[in-house]
Amino acid sequence: VDLSLRAELAAGYHSWSQIGRVLPEDWVHRELPCLRCSRKPLTPTPRNTKTRDFDCDWCGEPYELKSTKKKFGRMVADGQFDTLLGTVTSNRVPNFLLLEYDSSGFSVRNLIAIHRTLISPESIRPRKPLSDRALRKGWVGSTMDLALIPPAARVSVVYEGLPIPWPIVSEAWGRFEFMIQIRPENQGWIRDVLALVQKLPPGPFHPTDLYQFENRLRELHPNNRNIGPKIRQQLQFLVAQGALTRVRRGVYLRVE
Ligand SMILES: [Zn+2]
Questions:
Q1: What is the DSSP letter of 32?
Q2: Ligand 1 centroid from CA 30, angstroms
Q3: How many angstroms separate the alpha carbon of residue 124 from the centre of ligand 1?
Q4: Confidence at residue 16, expressed as pLDDT on a 0 to 100 scale
């Protein structure tokens, strides 16, 4: 993988906000294979397509690119809150590509890909509405809390200027292929339980530790009354898929 951005493309633009969008977009299109099927290139979506920037023409996986010349923190800003939340709850949210570039050397420094199936409504927060003086007064943006996405679903593709060997990236991504294969309703339960597991302190936990989030789970899944059994069922399924470890009967551990 060639990590250099095509600096000559910057010539046509004056602002860093444009350059910082165009150069990483061009790089993803040239260099990044689809995380799921490993084929190239990812095809840019038509301008003004909301909520995603690339599609894989082979397997259909959608991607949204976020890029910065700084560092991404725990909270990543995204578009309109209602729109993003809607795509998450209807299982249409794209995979996210978080790309950090070096603006002096014009190269990719870090790239993390986030598996779309593990983005829970729990991790999406509204921002403060824009003030009366703003052009889009009252507009409500969103932030995504990366801490509520299981670490295994945040796959490193480039780390501090070094590309991670593709077989490692591909295998890490493939760990969540099972999520794409199961029914959307079950996907929702799993991603929400995993997001809530991320809220627990580190170390072993019991299913009952998750009961404190019962009301939240009831909000997210209003048609289900048996929250306790449903939680235990998800935990057992996640152990079978290797996404959680069972220490002993009734005691679980996150995979870090
Ligand atoms: Zn693909």
A1: P
A2: 15
A3: 26
A4: 85
Two tokens, residue 235: 């935990």
The two tokens of residue 14 are: 């004056």
Residue with tokens 């939240």: 216
Write out the two tokens for 145: 């809390």
pLDDT at 256: 78
pTM for the whole thing? 0.95
Distance 55 CA to ligand 1 centre (A): 8
Give me the residues of the chain with pLDDT under 50, please: none
Provide CB contacts within 8 A for 137, sequence distance 6+.
Answer: 130, 131
Q: CB count, 10 Å around CB of 57?
A: 12
| pLDDT at residue 49 in the model | 86
Q: Which helix (H) or strand (E) holds 181?
A: helix 177-181
The amino acid at residue 254 is: R
